[in-house]
Amino acid sequence: MTVPTGYRGRFAPSPTGDLHAGSLLAALGSWLFARRAAGRWLVRIEDVDRPREVAGAAVRQLAALRACGLQPDEPVQRQSEREQLYRAALEDLADRGLAFPCWCSRSDLAATGGIHRACVRAPDPDRMPAIRLRVADGTRIRFVDDVRGPQVQDVDAEVGDFVLFRADGLWAYQLAVVVDDAAQGIGHVVRGADLLDSTPRQILLQHALGLPTPGYAHLPLVTDAGGRKLSKSDAAHPFDPAAPLPAMRRAWAALGQSPLPDAGLHEPADWLALALAAFDPARIPTCD
Ligand code: GLU
């Protein structure tokens, strides 16, 4: 396999609703970082969680990106078509004793705040187990976020042995995202800060699988007037593909960037060119 070189970034929406202010911010932010480095920008539809998928959402998200002039440089990948890669990674971990079947339920782990350190439930041949990654005692992951600076997490104490394959037969986000970022040669992950505390798990998995660790940059969360995180189903900020510029300007402002002299502009591509020339990552807010 040839390893791609140069900056490669991505936007990886889950098709659980339409593009909204928070996902547009991640799309625009990851695009700006990639283009500023004269790099490539990819889009991956993260549709492993089929029950949460909203019919038609992926197609509408891609249309919304197109309306914004945010065109991926390579064909869009879908996680639902990549299960073989996840299976191979899981088998590799299991063969090396790093992953194990677990019958513990959520309520079994209530006493430990949901943190799994040892199975409290015996194997049950009548039920499918989850498969967890074994997190060794004292596992501490440090990384330097390109926006937020040094980060540290005690993965054993704060997260515990985490799920790679769910008891309901679905691939866990943590495994799929790590396998895909490596397979697609992603060197830079730029995404919302809601995923900041997932990053140590992903780095741990990269170490376990012998995969490179990309750079990480976490962008501020877009909140509503009450300070609540916007979910993809939030109807208060519908995105209008026929007039994307107001939403793009709001995303630009949420990235902490100075207003652009864009009064006469109507074409998203022209606006993006102006934004790219003015983009200053040092202005991105480092807290939410
Ligand atoms: N699919 C995730 C989401 O839509 C993002 C995953 C990522 O960027 O790593 O929240």
Overall outline? elongated
Share of helix, binned: 25-40%
Rg from C-alpha positions? 20 Å
Low-confidence stretches: none
Structural class of the helix and strand makeup?
A: alpha/beta
Q: What's the number of domains?
A: 2
- Assigned CATH class of the largest domain: Alpha Beta
Measured distance between first and last alpha carbons: 40 Å
Proportion in β-strands: 15-25%
Count the DSSP helices.
8
Question: Ligands bound here?
Answer: glutamic acid
- Listing every helix as H and every strand as E from the N terminus to the C terminus, the arrangement reads EHEHEHEEEEHEHEHEHH
The spatial strand order of the largest sheet comes to 3-2-1-9-10
User: What is the CATH topology descriptor of the largest domain?
Assistant: Rossmann fold
Average pLDDT value? 94
- The CATH homologous superfamily name of the largest domain equals HUPs
Looking at the overall shape, the CATH architecture of the largest domain is 3-Layer(aba) Sandwich
Number of strands: 10
